[in-house]
UniProtKB/TrEMBL annotation:
PANTHER family: HAD SUPERFAMILY HYDROLASE-LIKE, TYPE 3 (PTHR10000:SF8), PHOSPHOSERINE PHOSPHATASE (PTHR10000). InterPro entries: HAD-like_sf (IPR036412), HAD-SF-IIB-MPGP (IPR006381), HAD-SF_hydro_IIB (IPR006379), HAD_sf (IPR023214). GO terms for cellular component: cytosol. The keyword Magnesium applies. Pfam families: Hydrolase_3. NCBIfam families: HAD-SF-IIB, HAD-SF-IIB-MPGP, PRK00192.1-4. SUPFAM superfamilies: HAD-like. GO terms for biological process: mannosylglycerate biosynthetic process. It comes from Prochlorococcus marinus str. PAC1. This is Putative mannosyl-3-phosphoglycerate phosphatasee. Keywords: Hydrolase, Magnesium, Metal-binding. Its EC number is 3.1.3.70.
Length: 266
């Protein structure tokens, strides 16, 4: 990736670029256009590095990527294919201990994804055996089954004591260090690549995307089939966030193409 890029497309994957079946077909033409224009596409996701490496290979993406909700950033050196790494988070083992302690304080069992059987994970995610193996390759965050809303609010309140925070995705919640979230990860990447003036176009669909959307220069909320996530509604209402006109890859492609057109008109 060229360090002097004027714009970065920084995008969530699940529920944003992908639908519930992990399909991105309606966005493939737009991804090809972005590649022709040399506009980087940077995945910024709750997925693991193993999952995103696989996704990038399938879709011919070569730009850096942000994983585990902003807990780590990866990219490849231009001189060779070796990978560099920026770590913002606490280790998985440390976070899992913290999750256990929070469970006791809220008197509710918070179940980590990695503690489920493969059949349970398949029922939750629809992933193949290989996909499940990649999803369980966690280093810097702990995904856990979404608790009821009142329990989730109690968990958020307790997190400060442990210097962690929690974000709710569509399928799971995620515990990670207070030093890491998607917005902080994008900033760290800008500093690392010495491109502080780049404009960030961010796309997301759920509460764990809020730090990214708040950090970006242009922020686009991708709705689900039943409308936008309630945690993002305030940003839409006050005009901070744009709302895409369709769910998932279709809304993603339409919004990105509108922005590209705006660039061409400048």
């Amino acid at each position: 990736m060229k360090n002097n890029s004027k714009y970065w497309i920084v995008t969530d994957l699940d529920g944003t670029l992908m639908d519930e079946d992990y399909d991105i077909t309606p966005a493939k033409k737009t991804l090809k256009i972005l590649a022709e224009l040399n506009i980087p596409v940077i995945p910024c996701t709750s997925k693991t590095a193993s999952e995103v490496r696989h996704f990038r290979k399938e879709n011919a993406l070569t730009d850096p990527f942000i994983v585990e909700n902003g807990a780590a950033v990866y990219g490849c050196y231009e001189q060779n294919s070796s990978e560099w790494e920026l770590i913002l988070g606490k280790s998985y083992s440390e976070l899992k201990t913290i999750l256990f302690n929070i469970s006791k304080k809220v008197d509710f069992h918070l179940t980590p994804l990695n503690d489920l059987s493969k059949n349970q994970i398949f029922d939750l995610t629809g992933l193949s055996d290989q996909g499940i193996t990649r999803a369980l390759d966690r280093c810097w965050s702990v995904p856990f089954l979404n608790p009821p809303d009142d329990i989730f609010e109690n968990v958020k309140f307790i997190c400060d004591f442990y210097n962690v925070h929690v974000f709710k995705g569509n399928r799971m919640s995620h515990l990670l260090s207070s030093e890491s979230h998607k917005g902080k990860a994008v900033n760290k990447l800008k500093v690392y690549l010495q491109n502080n003036d780049v404009k960030i176009i961010a796309l997301g669909d759920s509460q764990n995307d809020l730090p990214l959307l708040e950090y970006a220069d242009i922020s686009i909320v991708i709705p689900g089939k039943n409308g936008p996530n309630k945690y993002l509604q305030n940003g839409i209402d006050n005009g901070s966030f744009r709302l895409a006109n369709a769910p998932h890859a279709e809304g993603w492609a339409n919004s990105v193409q509108d922005i590209i057109k705006d660039f061409m008109d400048l």
